[in-house]
Structure formats: structure tokens, C-alpha cells
Specification:
3 helices; 301 residues
């Protein structure tokens, strides 16, 4: 009965989110702050800112001088672009990635893929072909479903799952686009560090041991039209100077910590979100981030 009540509440929140005024996203700016305080020094409700089974590895590499990394996304297809199909042409996602060129798209049809994908300086587009609920990338015990270091990766229309020993998705240095995905079950849903850039749209981050999303190490993320719920700590945790998040039109609810926690000089722009029904409230902001947070037009009670 409690689960039915929560599902009804989630449906009501989504309905209310559709009625909210949608504001245009703006660029994010962050500043580096010395001597970070511990999280327990966080305070509630910031004042709105006026400035407002087997582990496998795939290494689809491209040279650092490749202009594709600087000017194109995996969606930018050239005339030589191929479509590599899993499992019709390749038994695994890993095998398709190993055979892929930067212009190619990997289409993954329905199946349970027990793999841990590792991408190093890869430029690759991975697309679930069909009903997302029938396309599962399931990490073997103790591993991440997807690990990225450098490059430009786009993944869409898939379910990704890990156990509580590792993040479900781990990214650093590169660019990562996640669209229309369901990410669950890891120690953290997504961990982003070491200056990565990330764009997450229309996706679910849920039922992780700790946070749904962790940002640190000068990473920058845009979160739009997402649901982050039923995680064991904060829904989203943003730490360290020059790390920033721009989140809008998202629902962050039923987490055991706050919906959003920001500290150590990290910055955030938080507009038009539903941040209700979290154990520690809608938002916790450390003293070093108070002047770097814009918090407007959010549902908090």
C-alpha cells in the first residue's frame, strides 16, 4: 500500500511539473573556494541568487588531434557512417564497440547483456532499438555497467544496472550524453569526476545505495526532465570548486538525504524542479557555495 501511495505521488508530481513555467537554461559559472568545510556544515534552503557474468573491455580509440572530438558529437554522422547491430551482427555490445569507427552507430536490440563496457577516448553512439524496458546492460558483480575516460559518448534508450559495489556509470575527462535511460542499483547511479562534461535528459536515476548522481573534480552537468528517486543518500551531490550543475524540469523525491546537496565551492542553477518528499529536505548548501547557487521556482513543500 505504501508503494502504491508513493507511485501515486510520483504521478501527481510529474503532472504538476508539466504545468510549471519552463524557463530558458543559461550558462553556468563556478569559482574555486579554499578550505572546504565538511558536509555537516550545510544549511537548508539557499537564498535565491540575483545571478541567477564476465567483465569485458572495449577501447575504441581516436587520436587527441581528431577534429571529431572537438567539433562533433556521436550524432554527427558522415557519409561513411555504418549501423552496427547487436545481437544480429555482434554477440555483445563490447564486440560492436571494438569494430566501430567514430562515424558508426551501435544499435542494441532487446536482450540482457551481462557486460561491463570500458571506453577510452572513444567517440561512439550507443542506441537501444525498441522498448527500453527490454534492453538491459547489467554489470557483473563489482563492476560498472559503463566506464568512460575521455572521448565523446552518447547512450540512449537503455536500462543500465549495477550492484552496490560500484557506480552504475563512471565518467571522467570526456563528454557524455545520456538520453531516455534508466540507471539503477549501483553504489552511485552516475559518478562524474576529473573535468567531464555531461548532459542528462529524460532519464531515471533511482534505487542506488548512495546518491543517484555525484559530481566532483571540476565536472559540469546539465540535468533536464529527469527523475531521481529512492536513493539511499542525497538524490544529487555536487562537490568541489569549479564543479557545477544546471538542473531544470526534474523531479528529485523520496531520497534518504536531501534532493540536492552542494558544498566546497561548487555552484548550481536550480530552476523549475520538484524537490519535495526527501528526508533531509529539498536542498542543502554549504557556506562556501551559498553565493554560487541560484534557486528559483522550485516545488519544495
Amino acid at each position: 500500500q505504501q508503494q502504491q501511495q508513493q507511485q501515486a505521488a510520483l504521478a501527481e508530481q510529474q503532472r504538476r511539473m508539466q504545468q510549471m513555467k519552463i524557463s530558458e537554461q543559461h550558462s553556468r559559472a563556478a569559482q574555486h573556494a579554499p578550505s572546504p568545510p565538511p558536509l555537516q556544515h550545510m544549511q537548508h534552503s539557499p537564498t535565491p541568487s540575483p545571478h541567477d557474468s564476465r567483465t569485458t573491455s572495449a577501447t575504441s580509440r581516436s587520436p587527441s588531434a581528431d577534429p571529431l572530438l572537438a567539433t562533433q558529437s556521436p550524432q554527427a554522422a558522415g557519409s561513411a557512417r555504418r549501423v552496427l547491430r547487436v545481437p544480429d551482427q555482434f554477440d555483445s555490445i563490447t564486440a560492436a564497440i571494438q569494430a566501430a569507427r567514430p562515424e558508426d552507430q551501435i544499435q542494441v536490440s532487446a536482450g540482457h547483456y551481462m557486460e561491463s563496457i570500458e571506453l577510452v577516448d572513444a567517440v561512439v553512439d550507443i542506441l537501444g532499438n525498441g522498448n527500453m524496458q527490454h534492453i538491459l546492460l547489467d554489470a557483473p558483480a563489482g563492476t560498472s555497467a559503463l566506464s568512460q575516460q575521455g572521448g565523446y559518448v552518447r547512450i540512449s534508450n537503455m536500462m543500465l544496472r549495477s550492484n552496490g559495489l560500484a557506480p552504475t556509470v563512471r565518467t571522467q575527462k570526456g563528454k557524455l550524453m545520456i538520453e531516455d535511460c534508466n540507471i539503477s542499483g549501483g553504489k552511485i547511479g552516475i559518478t562524474a569526476e576529473n573535468g567531464c562534461q555531461m548532459d542528462i535528459k529524460r532519464s531515471v536515476l533511482c534505487r542506488c545505495e548512495r546518491q543517484g548522481l555525484y559530481l566532483g573534480g571540476t565536472s559540469v552537468a546539465v540535468l533536464e526532465s529527469c527523475s531521481v528517486f529512492e536513493n539511499g543518500d542525497h538524490g544529487i551531490l555536487v562537490m568541489q570548486g569549479a564543479t557545477s550543475i544546471d538542473m531544470t524540469k526534474s523531479m528529485v523525491s523520496y531520497n534518504q538525504g536531501a534532493a540536492l546537496a552542494i558544498d566546497q565551492g561548487a555552484s548550481a542553477k536550480v530552476e523549475n524542479n520538484d524537490l519535495r518528499n526527501n528526508v533531509q529536505g529539498p536542498c542543502l548548501v554549504g557556506v562556501q557555495s551559498q553565493h554560487l547557487v541560484s534557486f528559483t521556482n522550485n516545488l519544495t513543500t
